[in-house]
């Protein structure tokens, strides 16, 4: 094999360049503190590090979503807490309105105060999210969800629930539809409502009633009808849908006070109903808290100058108080849901932090540098590089004449 001077020089130069590249790579590792500065350093390790960084970026996004979700939920909880306070104000005023010493003027003053509370409740239901939208509008952000005309309040939002991904495959509701919060409540005792017929002339009063046996409830409307003959008053409970045949489900002699039970329903009647008087017992459909308050205001504005009007007022006021109590229970449950969502966010935040710490540890194990090992390797490569230079220097000075 022929070895030329050019080949010797070329091999020497290539050896120096290679040793220099290794030395510079080790210096770069020490400077950056990373074992992998480019995919060429460790292709498998670089791919693993890229996957870990992707997960860390996702956890960072989850953390941002959790913060935004917590912000919106706290806003919603604060608005709902104030709304609950307003409903409790209504409760107190309706209890005060039942004071037997109050006349029509005092009740009208309470009605006027309740109108102010109604306006406050509408304002709270239109609470802003701080970014140009509304907390209780659903997905509609361009207009306030509730519009008030007189004492009538209409919902103009939608039922679309806005969610944010706060953990992998876990979406947290961050805004609520005002329809579910404020418009869909069960009046009365939550199962049915009671009311006096407008044509009643006696002093009979019916309470809001209660459920005696839920299994017997039919969900049908009833009427309790009274007949007076001399000193005897009788009653009949009639199913208004006409079934069964005959539709009378209970009857008897009435003596005040009386507790009547039929088809799982229990109501109490007191006072002296007149002949032909009637009380209606109707299944509780959905009613908004605003309508409940508006009806209570209307009740307080009605004069109660005689016994019959007073009896109607007492019945209507009792129904309004029961409806407001149901609304309060409904709102407290919704507020508890927001509290549960905030607690869940805290749990996901803790889990997210734990996972972030775990993946940061994995990333460190993959790409961080062992400084003691790197310094030793730097010293070795520096020695190798110096040796390559010295050997090349010695060889480059040799010629054939050195052997003659």
Compile the SSE list and pairings.
Blueprint: H1 5-32, H2 43-97, H3 104-125, E1 146-149, E2 152-155, E3 163-167, E4 170-173, H4 178-183, E5 192-196, E6 205-206, E7 210-211, E8 222-229, E9 232-239, E10 248-253, E11 258-262, E12 265-270, E13 278-283, H5 289-301, H6 307-367, H7 371-396
Antiparallel strand pairs: 1-2, 3-4, 5-13, 6-12, 7-12, 8-9, 8-13, 9-10, 11-12
Helix pairs in contact: 1-7, 2-3, 2-6, 3-5, 5-6
Compose a concise summary of this entry.
It contains seven helices and 13 strands.
Can you describe this structure?
- The strands form four sheets. Strands 5-13-8-9-10 form a five-stranded antiparallel β-sheet. Strands 6, 7, 11 and 12 form a four-stranded antiparallel β-sheet that branches.
- It has helices spanning 5-32, 43-97, 104-125, 178-183, 289-301, 307-367, 371-396, and strands at residues 146-149, 152-155, 163-167, 170-173, 192-196, 205-206, 210-211, 222-229, 232-239, 248-253, 258-262, 265-270, 278-283.
- It has seven helices and 13 strands.
- The mean pLDDT is 86.
- The protein is rod-shaped, with a radius of gyration of 41 Å.
- α2 (43-97) packs antiparallel against α3 (104-125).
- With 404 residues, the chain is α+β, with helices and mostly antiparallel strands.
- It has two domains: 34-190 and 285-368, Up-down Bundle (f41 fragment of flagellin, N-terminal domain); 194-283.
